[in-house]
Amino acid sequence: MRRSTKLVIALVLLAAAGVASTLLVVDYRSKLRAKDFEKIIAMRSDEPQIGLASDWLECLKRQKEGGGSRATRTICKASTTNGLTSELVALKVDDQIVPVIENRLAGAKPGPVIVDIIGGPGGKPFAVDDAPTDKQIAEMREAGFTINGIDWHASYVSLLERGFTIASVGYWGTGLRTLNAPDEMQLAIREVRTVIDHYRDRDGAEPALLTTSLGNHLALGAMGEKRLEAMNFLALVPVMDGLQHHLRRAEREMAEARNKAKASGEPYGKWTFFHLYKETKGGKDFDHVRMLPLHDFFPLYAGAADFPWGAVGPIGPCSRIILGSKDPRTRDYLAARDDLPQFVTVLASDHDLFADAPQEMRAIFDRYADCLEAH
């Protein structure tokens, strides 16, 4: 059996186990034959994948059968791995039911909350017990696949070990759930605002934020510039010139490769798994799981949303913006400036800071925790 065929079979098994739905980005490379790549992106299931997605669907089902819980916060499922606990929480406010994964040390009381707004689209909310084995990671990377959500795990765990609770938001547009509809980002912004408001109202103070890539723009859209500037945040690789600048640049840079692939009949671009929901009379219901091309998904998802971070001037004592000097999203912003604000740090990295600069990122997380503890 060809190695590429074996990898397709392995991927199917990973997908069934719920790993691929949150971690795997498939990019057409020379190591895969076109027909094998097409097999991968054609995979579809009418059942949610085992793990977070199926747990969330079961939680929604129980609430619906019970006539809808009036509680604003319902624990759907809890699990403990290596001394760390993850709780899948349904946060209900008005007509919204938002999935939030609360992570903390096992047996400890919930500590100060850091709201984690992950990158995307198709990103993975942070949970301590959802990761493939080292062997699976090595095989997928050898085949040219990208495994997201591995390199940053240790930095996140370091915050838990300091006593913080990380509340990771499974907003619309993560791999956990999408409508694949125009301007879906506006639904995600509303959910992010709901989650942050919940912890602020419960605890009597604004929570700290940890925002990555798209998550930065969801936070800015949800909070507005003034409120965000007064909060403490660690903002990783925001697009300083805004999402529309990023979309225009990406379209220009992708045009040649995209046209070449179209002319040759080969697949193109990066694809990842999504759980697709549909609008029904009863709300938004799960429909199926399949892979979607990110280069088509994101322009539809973002619409006209922009939210540039270049104008954000934080006054929170712990707030920092971390950029990568090799990140094409950052290139024009850095080229136009001789001096950077004191709160901006630039690492010798591409967009994936944790893969390119793991030691520097661990130190940055430690300093963020030190500052939050001091304030």
Please provide a written account of the structure.
The strands form two sheets. This protein has a nine-stranded mixed beta sheet, sandwiched between helices. Helix 1 (3-16) runs parallel beside helix 3 and helix 6 (153-161) runs parallel beside helix 14. The protein has helices at residues 3-16, 20-23, 34-41, 52-65, 134-142, 153-161, 185-203, 214-223, 225-230, 243-264, 294-302, 331-335, 353-356, 358-374; strands at residues 24-27, 44-45, 73-81, 84-93, 96-105, 113-117, 146-147, 165-169, 208-212, 233-236, 270-280, 283-293, 320-324, 344-347. It has one domain (3-374): Alpha/Beta hydrolase fold, catalytic domain (Rossmann fold, 3-Layer(aba) Sandwich). It starts with a helix and ends with a helix. The model is unreliable at 15-23 (pLDDT under 50). The longest helix is centred in the C-terminal third of the chain and has 22 residues, at 243-264. The chain has 375 residues and is an alpha/beta fold. The chain is built from 14 helices and 14 strands.
